[in-house]
Structure formats: structure tokens, C-alpha cells
Amino acid sequence: MSIFERINRLFPVWAILLAVIAALVPEFFTGLAGYIKTLLVIIMFAMGLTLTKDDFARVVKSPKPIAVGVVLQFLVMPLAALLVSKLLGLSTELTIGMVLVGATAGGTSSNVMTWLAGGHVALSVSMTMVSTLIAVIATPLITLLLLGQSIDVPVLGMLMSIAQLVVAPIVLGVVIHHLLGSHIQRVEPALATLAMAAIVLIIAIVVALNAGRLSTLGPIVALAVIAHNGIGLAAGYGIARALRFDTPTSRTIAFEVGLQNSGLAVTLANQFFSAGAALPGALFSVWHNVSGSLLAGYWKRQSAATESSTAASSRG
């Protein structure tokens, strides 16, 4: 095992460590806020370098997982948000924030966690793109149905953001992989380490930027966000397995359902409701990166153990 693979296996440890440091000493990271988009582009480019056009061709030929993932995305997460809010007795303001998180599309974090967990990255990217397009209509409609509130979603801004931060760097990576595939394969563990470092830094920056808000949140709100995220991950994986999708596909769907575009939820809450309504989204931004990191690390270790066992059996 290379040094990069050893470092990558400790991904959840680095994520938690940096998150704790950022919460205790936020000034170490707040000045880096302007680099979040750059770091995300680096992650997506590194991911694209590991993909081929055939990966996306297979997704187009088998659209069922995309349909299942997107349906679960806009069914499970909004209803889970409302249910958790009601069960925990959250205020109207916080309930609005929870539902906004549930009604948004899958976040780009799902693509990264899928890659690190050994899922189907091309499928994950495709689901995120499809859910983002559908969210243009679904987010305000779901919000209206569940809360009786009507909001305007920044359509052009959402699409431009996805194009610049996700599509463009991944496409560039795929093109370079096509040209230099044999060379890329040799450095894939190093690419994963680069992406992991960028993710951990993003987590630290997000925690630092929300350190003040996080300290004002009661444990009941934290419990609501953790439960909401957990329901999404569990439902995505469980239903996918029940539909007899393979393990990598089920993991991919789990991340797509459970990891939301909470940044958009925060923006919408601030624009159309109140600062208080933005708190669930802010906390979700932090938590889903930490929970996603932990789950990705666990699933990656499971895959590695299975591969080792299979190799040992074949030698025996």
C-alpha cells in the first residue's frame, strides 16, 4: 500500500480533526473563504481525471438508477425534513429552513464522497445535474406544498454555478484522461489525496465561517439536522438495495439523496425568509460533509477488505 493510500484511509480522521480545530480557532480558516470555489474546482478536475467517456455512456444506457435517485431526492428529503421538524417541535422559522434543505437538489459533495467511497462517479454527477435542473421547478413547488410559501429560485445562477464548478472541470479532466490515460492511472492515489486535502480544507472553512452560528444552536436543532441527513443516507441506500441495485450504485444513490445543496438552502432562506431559517442549512453544510466523510471512509475500507479477501481466495 502506497503512502497516499494510507493517508486516504484516514480521511474521516482528518475531516473531524480539522473541523474541531476550525470550531475552536475559526480565525485560522475564515480568511480562506474566497478559495472554496477554487478548491471545489480542483476536486472536480481531479475526479474527472479518473473518468472516461465510457463511464457516462454506461449511465445513459441505464437511466433507471438516475430516475430512482432523483425521485427519492425530492420525495424522501422534503418529507423527512417536515416529519423531523414536527416530531421535535421546531419553530416555524426553523421548520422552513429544514424544508428548504430537503427541497433542494443534491450537493456536489455527493460526487466527491461517491468517488472516495468507490461508488459510480459518472452516475453521481449525472444525478446531481438532473436533480439541479429539476430543482428549478421542484424546490419552489415542494416548498409551496409543504409550507404554503412561494419562493423564486435563482435559475440562471444555479445553472451557471453547476456548469462552472462541476461540469467544466470534470469534462476537462475526462478529456485529459482520454489523452493521457496510462499516465493518469499511475497517479490516481495521489489525485485522491489531493482531493481529500481540498475537501478537508473546505470542511474546515465552512465550520469556521459558521462557528458563531453553531454555538448559538441548541442541541435540538443539531439533532434535527443529524436525523434528517441520516434518514436520507439510510433511505437512499436501503431502497436502492431493495430494488436490487449493486453495492456501488446503492452507495451512490445514498450520497445523492442524503447530501444536499444546503448552500442554496441558506441563500434562499436569507433572501426570502429570515436569518433564523438559514440556520438548519448552515449546520447541514457542516454536518453532511463530516457524516459523508465518515461513511465514505467506512465503505472504502469495506471495499478494500473485500478485495483483499477475494485476492487471497483466488491465490488459495
UniProtKB/TrEMBL annotation:
Pfam families, per the entry:
SBF (PF01758)
Transmembrane domains' residue ranges: 32-52, 64-84, 96-117, 129-149, 155-179, 191-211, 217-240
Q: Which InterPro entries match?
A: BilAc:Na_symport/Acr3, Bilac:Na_transpt, Na+/solute_symporter_sf
- Localization, UniProt: Membrane
Keywords assigned: Membrane, Transmembrane, Transmembrane helix
Chief location bin: membrane
- Membrane protein topology class: Multi-pass membrane protein
Q: Which GO terms describe its cellular component?
A: membrane
The record's listing under PANTHER family reads: P3 PROTEIN-RELATED, SODIUM-BILE ACID COTRANSPORTER
- Indicate what this protein is called per its UniProt record: Sodium transporter
What is the source species? Halomonas halmophila
